[in-house]
Design goal:
Shape: globular
Helix content: 40-55%
Number of domains: 1
Radius of gyration: 13 Å
Largest sheet: none
Distance between the termini: 40 Å
Order of helices and strands: HHH
Amino acid sequence: MLHRHITADVQAYLARFPSLLITGARQVGKSTLALSLGIDNYVTLDDIATYQSAKAESHC
């Protein structure tokens, strides 16, 4: 697997904050990074139902 320089930063953020948004262009390794770190509550908004649920909850 490719070593990512951001890995240490992501781990530090996860230790301090309850949530983290990983965003970027398609096919750059966002999901691979999250899964390689063993993030328990990994959610992707690629699924339209998940996206719509998140969008509806953000309007509260």
